[in-house]
Amino acid sequence: MKIKDIKTFFAAAVWRNFVIVQVTTDDGIVGYGEGTLGDFEKTVESAVNDLKPFLIGRELEITEITNFFLRNFFWRNGPILSTAQSAIEQALWDAAAKSANKPVYALLGGKAVEKVKVYGNGFISGNATSKEYGDAALRTVERGFYALKFDPFGGAGPTITRKQLDAAKSRIKAIRDSVGDDIDLMIEAHGRFNTRTAIKIAGEIAEYDPFWFEEPVPEEDILSMGEVRRDSPVPIATGERIISRNRFWELLSNRSADIIQPDVCHMGGILPLVEVGAMANVNYVTVAPHNPNGPVATAASLNALITMPNALILEFWLDADTVRHDLIKEYFTLKDGYIYPSNKPGLGIEVNEEALTKYQYQKMHLEYFSEKYKYHGDVKK
Questions:
Q1: DSSP state of 335
Q2: How far apart are CA 207 and CA 201, in angstroms?
């Protein structure tokens, strides 16, 4: 089975465009992967097109192609190239598993767990009031989510004023008071703080019993992340912007995280995610994949995560609901706060090809560290 063609599609959503890569084989099998990268979607498309001539006519041998990506180019890694390669790799797995008439996870060794807990994100952001945070959280719990993630810090960073910290704590408290003690709360910082500030914040938010404190310092500073982790009373999660297995090994060997968050769209694809999960497992670290992107990425993440005995939880985004449901013909099975894998061949989803050209590309930009940033909502068509 050989690669016949590779195409890229965009679907405009809230604050970014989903980037969908389609691989067609000479047997007529079509596989899909996702390489969504906010702000740089067109650049990812260009990288896919740069890689395409090296892949057309090549046998669909995923390990060989992955090694080709890693060994045969002088310039390697980086978020653009790695995202393009990740999307292609996912599509190759989808096609290979469809050819074998098995789910991707079956080709990876089968399920280690039967279901995975999910947490809701994308339900509130920015400089909303404490009451708005609490109300939005309660609505999300009423939808069946028992874990929630949010960034309460507005425009703070790399330090934080007393007023900003009190406002953030007020938002966290409002959510905790609204949803009760049985709901897990993940506190997101988007890598905005310096080391001493992050440690101070961790100490002050501990009273609300967070499930984790995410990316408290910039992700590239693994030693500082480790310093925060050692002094924090709250578990530390990080890894969404780490794109190489080598860097994950550095993160793990330095004991710089309690939970790692690799993103299938950026770190090479499905098999690298599984390999990093195995690294984490032998270091007694759990895996909670970063997944703020589209439904193809959700399916790819789930196929990898379900094979891991140290699977912890999967991010499940709630914005752009119309686009997400329209892109695939049968949506994911969620029950009592868990997601269940499909037993259908490939990634377990059927892409709605009509929707691939329905939501035309729109240039968008999200300012994470602004008081006014907003990534929740829907797309009306």
A1: E
A2: 11
Superfamily holding 106-351: Enolase-like C-terminal domain (3.20.20.120)
Reply yes or no on whether 365 is catalytic: no
Given 190, 325, 365, 376, the catalytic residue: 190
Is the predicted pLDDT of residue 381 greater than 60, yes or no?
no
Fold of 3-101: Enolase-like; domain 1 (3.30.390)
Each domain of the chain, given as residue ranges in start order, spans 3-101, 106-351
In the block, tokens 């790695």 appear at 82
96 three-state secondary structure: helix
Instruction: Decide if 190 is catalytic.
Output: yes
The residue with tokens 């469809």 is 98
158: enclosing H helix or E strand: none
Give the alpha-carbon dihedral of 119, 318, 36, 117, to 10 degrees: 20
The Cα–Cα gap between 65 and 363 comes to: 32
Q: Residue 143 and residue 316: Cα distance in Å, rounded?
A: 12
CA dist 365 and 363 (Å) reads 7
Residue tagged active-site, from 290, 325, 365, 376: 290
Partners of residue 269 on adjacent β-strands: none
pLDDT confidence band for 372 (50 / 70 / 90): confident
SS3 267: coil
CA distance 182 to 174: 15
Q: Find the DSSP H helices in the chain.
A: 41-55, 62-71, 79-100, 104-107, 130-142, 162-179, 195-205, 222-231, 245-253, 270-282, 295-305, 321-327
For the chain, the average pLDDT equals: 96
257-315 confidence digits (pLDDT tens): 999 999 999 999 999 999 999 999 999 999 999 999 999 999 999 999 999 999 999 99
Do residues 362 and 17 make contact, with C-beta atoms less than 8 angstroms apart? Answer: yes
Neighbours of 354 (CB within 10 A): 9
Q: Whole-structure pTM over 0.90, yes or no? A: yes
Angle (CA) 96 85 377, round 5° = 95
Does residue 160 surpass a pLDDT of 80? yes
d(CA 237, CA 259): 5
| 3-101 matches 106-351 in fold | no
In the block, which residue shows the tokens 């995280």? 257
